[in-house]
Amino acid sequence: MRLRSAALLVAALTPLTPALTAPAAHAVTAAAPYDFNGDGRTDLAIGAPGATVSGKAKAGAVSVVYGSTSGPKSSTRTLLTQDTAGMPGAAEADDAFGSALASADLNTDGYADLLIGVPGEDAYDTNNGTVTVVWGAKAGLSGARSLYSPFDRDYDRYGQSLAAGDFDNDGKLDVAVGSTGPITLTLINGPITKTGADNGASGSRNDWWSTSYGITHLSSGRVTGSGGHPWVVLHGSTKGTDDAATALADMEISNYNDWLQDLPGGYVSAVGDIDKDGYADIAVGNDRETSADPSGALGGKVTVVYGGPGGRDTGRAPLVLTQDTAGVPGASEKGDRFGSGVSLGDINGDGYADLAIGAAGENSAAGAVTVLYGSASGLTTKGATSYSQNTAGVAGASEKGDRFGERVTLTDHTGDRRADLSVTAPGENAGDGAVWSLRGTATGPTATGSTSFGPGTTGISTAGAPGYGTALNS
User: Fold this and answer.
1) Does residue 400 register a pLDDT over 80?
2) Do residues 48 and 470 make contact, with C-beta atoms less than 8 angstroms apart?
3) pLDDT at residue 206 is higher than 90
4) With bands split at pLDDT 50, 70 and 90, how would you rate the model's confidence at 210?
5) Does residue 217 sit in helix, strand or coil?
6) Spatial CB neighbours of 12, under 8 Å, sequence gap ≥ 6
7) I want to staple 47 with a disulfide (CB 3.0 to 4.6 A). Which of 93, 98, 160, 247 is the partner?
8) Which residues, in sequence order, are CB contacts of 190 under 8 Å at separation 6+?
9) What is the rounded distance in angstroms from the CA atom of residue 278 to the CA atom of residue 33?
10) CA torsion 370→374→377→381, rounded to 10°?
11) Is 430 helix (H, G, I), strand (E, B) or coil?
12) Which residue, among 351, 400, 334, 394, has the nearest Cα to 369 in the 3D structure?
């Protein structure tokens, strides 16, 4: 197990006013991430950072489509921009509101809250960025506050990646924020409430990462087991080479010498328990060719790293998957971008996390998605299936440049305890973008009764190229 070190700065901020504690008899169970209205169904948040708002190009927007017994229901939705009533700031050109999304019930009121990255916001300086928290409620999302970086000008594009969880293991939910510049990772300490002051933060000046790209993607999960706190998977680029750099971080930091464990290089990841052994596993997607990144592969690849009590299970070899792997549909071809998106969730309800893999470059960037299943022995290619816009029942048709599979998510929108497959194609209709959702069944995702919608359906302007689906539930 290779370990890395990093120097940490600690911000001295005004302590947060203590939150009121409800009597035990009336204690509220925290909602699952992305269940904004507390109905037991996961809602779908879709980022369109290229959206034009009030004539401001690339100001950005997010549409939230609420879950129902039939899946995401576009007629019940919330449109969010910086011009939405109650939102901090104002829509401005190049703010890129919606570049990153994350969710948790930050104030533990029984409704999940939505975190939105705004890396182009001019806060203190040009493109410093910010993070907006939108609060969940029975009627859906409403009201918001900003989470500014505590380091003033010592960062750029703050909010380009996000994750939420009790990362420092103090019983309160925190927010991890990726950025560029000298400080590339910030941990905002919980609790985070609607009106409370900032509670403090820490930030990493790790000289391993390229400060030009910073932390470009974050994911998290309980890699060390259900009794442990969530760890964070960090993605960036190695200084001097720009090759993918990926690490597993324990942010309950008691020392600064061994909080990072190396992972196979990639640009996106997902965390879930594939083999039901109590330890979450990590799927790392690297959609680049070896000519662009030595840790890539012809047509792209996904590497599954199994978790254990100490983080990465070093006694178990990682599983490397390409489209040339026996049982995986298709074949590895240059530009397929297999691994452009990854997500883990239990599609068939057997208790094992399954894996959805986007290949946004497949067939001249028309795109496709592959689904593989979890088992007691780990991920298996038995019964693997592939989906595209040419699949019967999936709306539309595969066209060059659609990028179907750029982002994927496996989560339960219907409340039947099976994960549904949602897929974005930000290139659909010349950059308008679109989203599809296929219901999970005992035999896998079904295109029968699948839903599809684009930015216009959910109130986002199609002026320019909004890139609807550039970000999706993480």
Assistant:
1) yes
2) yes
3) no
4) confident
5) strand
6) 200
7) 98
8) 106, 166, 170, 172, 173, 174, 175, 199
9) 20
10) -20
11) helix
12) 394
